[in-house]
Write a structure and sequence with these properties.
The chain has four helices and 22 strands. It is α+β, with helices and mostly antiparallel strands. The chain has five domains: 44 residues, no CATH class; 81 residues, no CATH class; 43 residues, no CATH class; 35 residues, no CATH class; 83 residues, no CATH class.
């Protein structure tokens, strides 16, 4: 068989009888040897330049001083910029995976960050996980170039979203909406720190359970609050108070209270099942200091202060009773 390139040579020397059709067999013409050597040098040069590929190269070690290309872009080493591309013949970072016309995953160890992972769609960076230089802080960014609106970092399990960081700095768990209420359940933390939590539970279920090593506090599905020892208090140390004086009479305020029975509209009951006061009626009775208007526009009542007013009024009633008892005792004596 004609030996057209170095790949056609045989490992058995007796089978190598020509080089590029030049006879080098036994008893060949001496002039043919010179021409054969020249053709052999061409064949070797073709291997050196890559015009003819090696069949199965193997080496104990290999040093490549220039660029390295494997199957055009399957693997590419840019020796000038010290970059490696996988499926990418034009790597832009230390390790660049993927074609620049599609999706890319890039690893970097230089520049502003000391190291990071960048995610690209075409030429647009859409996310970045980086270690900020010298700070030891991991920075995870969605849309780091600010080219998109309403971008977010989403976490999914089995194809379903379970949590999200929004572009406004909010964190959502178990919901795809930042609006949490009695019909949209989940957990959210706004950028301001405002936290909401909602579960699809009635009066018997626990919305929140907080533990210490000696007790527990619960918030129930109907808004009830419970704790292990039925103790609710306030920081009342003298060192945090000033303008201390005896409270004025609460007799008239307590007499003016309208204690009502009622039910909540959301419960849709046929009759009242609760007892308490109405915020607007307290304001009309001159006790507006016990009423607050919340962020949602609903009025609330400081029942704890109301109870203290009742305690003061009870003391006044005790004084009046004791005074009457003394007068009756004097009359009977």
């Amino acid at each position: 068989m004609t030996k057209a390139s170095i790949r056609d040579y045989s490992a058995t020397n007796s089978l190598n009888t020509d080089i590029q059709d030049i006879d080098i067999d036994e008893n060949c013409l001496p002039s043919g040897i010179n021409n054969a050597i020249r053709e052999l040098m061409v064949d070797m040069k073709n291997v050196s330049t890559g015009a003819v590929a090696l069949e199965s190269p193997s080496a104990d070690s290999l040093s490549v001083t220039g660029d390295l290309t494997v199957d055009t872009n399957t693997l590419y080493v840019d020796s000038t910029n010290n970059r490696v591309g996988i499926n990418n013949a034009s790597p832009q970072t230390d390790l660049d995976i993927g074609n620049s016309s599609g999706n890319n995953l890039r690893f970097t160890g230089s520049g502003t960050n000391t190291g990071g992972i960048e995610f690209y769609t075409s030429t647009v960076e859409v996310a970045n996980i980086g270690v900020l230089g010298g700070s030891g802080t991991i920075d995870i960014r969605s849309d780091p170039n600010n080219t998109e609106s309403n971008s977010s970092i989403d976490f999914e399990v089995d194809g379903s979203e379970v949590a999200r960081f929004t572009d406004t700095g909010e964190f959502w768990v178990g919901t795809t909406s930042g609006t949490i209420n009695s019909s949209n359940f989940g957990f959210t933390v706004a950028s301001s720190g405002f936290t909401t939590l909602s579960r699809d539970l009635g009066s018997g279920g626990n919305i929140i359970r907080v533990y210490g090593n000696a007790g527990e506090f619960r918030i129930k599905g109907d808004g009830d609050a419970e704790n292990t020892n039925n103790s609710y208090g306030a920081i009342s140390d003298q060192t945090v108070k000033e303008n201390i004086a005896d409270a004025s009479s609460q007799w008239d305020d307590i007499k003016a209270l309208q204690v009502r029975k009622f039910s909540l509209i959301q419960h849709n009951l046929d009759e009242a099942n609760q007892i308490g006061v109405i915020a607007q009626e307290l304001e009309a009775a001159g006790m507006g200091g016990l009423v607050k208007t919340n962020d949602d526009g609903l009025k609330s009542v400081k029942y704890s202060v109301l109870y203290m007013k009742a305690v003061k009024a009870l003391q006044e009633a005790q004084t009046r009773i004791e005074d009457l008892e003394a007068r009756i005792s004097a009359l009977e004596g």
